[in-house]
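Interim report, section 4.2 (structural modelling).
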Amino acid sequence: MRRRVRVPMREQDPEERIKNFNEVALGYSEDEALLEADRCLQCPKPRCIDGCPVGIEIPAFISLIKERRYREAYRKIKERDSLPAITGRVCPQENQCEKTCVLARTGEPVAIGRLERFVADYCVENTQEIDKESSNDKRIAVVGSGPAGLTVSADLAKLGYSVTLFEALHLPGGVLTYGIPEFRLPKDIIKREFEYVRALGVEFVPNVIVGKTILLDELLEDYDAIFIGSGAGAPVFLNVPGENLLGIYSANEFLSRINLMRAHLFPEYDTPLKIGKKVLVVGGGNVAMDSARVSRRLGAEVTILYRRSREELPARLEEIKRAEEEGINFVFLATPLAFKGSNGWVDSVECQEMELGELDESGRRSPIPKKDSTFTLKVDTVIIAIGNRPNPIIAKTTQGLEIGRHGEIIIDPETGKTSKVGVFAGGDIVSGSATVIEAMGAGRKSAMAIHRYLTTGVW
Amino acid sequence: MYKIIDKKRLSTNVVQMTIEAPLIARSIKPGQFIIIMVYEKGERIPLTVVTSDKKNGLITIVFQEVGKTTKLLGKKEIGEELYAVMGPNGNPFPVRHYGNIVLVAGGVGVAEIVPIAKALKEADNYIITIVGARTKELLFFTDVLASVSDKLCVTTDDGSYGIKGLVTLPLKELLDTTHIDMILAVGPTIMMKAVSDLTKNYNVKTYVSLNPIMIDGTGMCGGCRVTVGGKTKFVCVDGPEFDGHLVDFDELMMRQKTYLEEERLALKLLEEKDA
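Predicted structure of the assembly:
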């Protein structure tokens, strides 16, 4: 009898984990992985692959796990995904490969993400083999070292291109480094995946802002093609009164202080962070969950305020569940109207109750204010996690690059080609904030298109 | 990378340092700034570049040792390297022919205003510069500013040099007697506020260069947000220069004090370690 439920993954106990920043999900052991791999039916026409933005041959790698050929399973994944230890942890599999798994119809789908992670972690000691074609004389500039940029860099380096990867910050990884907390994606994992990209021969150049330090047009003189993966780095604020009071952070600032600058280790690290007893996080996505869970680990009582209902929460189910386990409160169907403070510091939030109306552009019911119903919450710290817009720097300083109304770079979705010859773009700079794997999928497409462009010479 | 090539002390706590940063040296324009990290565990802080030498790939910064980060920076010696230097950030100052200009500088603003002053001079402006300091010992770069100004006026709070009083004293006199087309004030926020409050009455266009707390400097964190004309702006990507008559200085000064306690603690620990 085939098990209808997946093998559970061991996790740090909620009571314990809210006192540390260590990884929450502990991964499968070999036995657990074998047990779970055995659930895969090896469908002749697998639908899981269609659900994967980078098209990993899922049944094939799971079959290799069944045969305990883990290194080959790893290589199989790596054919399509340069960063499996990362995607195995942060992909929203429930909306992708696992959603289309045939087992999902009658029970739980195969835990594809957990198996991917198992393989990636298992092979960590196996110093990653470098499999690349002989070098050609073509030079590629990649802008931004987040998931899109890392993917393009790895894919093109493997094809023999000479790749320079530019990063504005002092560390590589983009949102993987400044955005996703340690307990969800340990820094060592990012480091390991990044070292692999470097070992492929990619030259990493930190502290360079393309569009300021070097203009994109200047890069075009020195490189045969450019990929822009500069991300959705511009935080959206609510634009309500009192938002600039002390104690109110964008999620980007709050998370960067911790993840990038290590403010939780102040004064060993020099960047501080002020957090009060009562924290309110505004928003309902993964970034809101991350902000809430970081706050909890810093000892705060945390409430998430979301303008729609529980069903519409855009965060991964697993992250919502973990947030709840960690004692985070949720207030649904409400949004801030104004922040009030004393001595410059925020001390309360006036909120508007909402109700759900008609379906909007996003296919979700849109929140509308409920008449005459406001309430006040006492707070010490507020974190605004309602989204990010594409970073505007390149758009502002580059001629002839077509930009959309939200500041996104306009591309041909099949190839990532921009309106400027030789320049490709992908990831959040094109889509606005989305997922790590979607950015990687876009990077992959662009890498292939760059290869075609430079092989044929046809734009 | 980012090797210190030269270093000298301009006053008791103001240091000038020349650093290897070829990409910045070739791209930075007057009004823009850089972000540095002294060491791996350090903060990212914004600083102004006073001169850049494209040919040799060097930039020169001037900073005042006030907190832990600037003190650590001040201890770095020639031959040592900084962990990170990133830039240029922000927008260049709108350099053009204005006519009669008054430049008002205080604190390290004296250094910050130098590249803008040079560019404005080259754009054929008549430049009157007012430099303010608490006392004579804290004055530096007056010779440099004198060389790019048509007129230079120095004030000290205690009267130990030049006019006794604040920068607004000679500024008011000028506004009462001379036609002024534009004013640029760079220095402590309280000084820029006082200048803006004064010039508002005369309706003279007044630019100020803001210096809030920052992290990334690329528009990502929003920590440097400030209200200008009722709208929230990010100093790192929308500034750093703004119309002084529209800036909410009280909010800015409040936000600058966010980490006062932590800054004191970090400094205390550093001093204990040194002792």
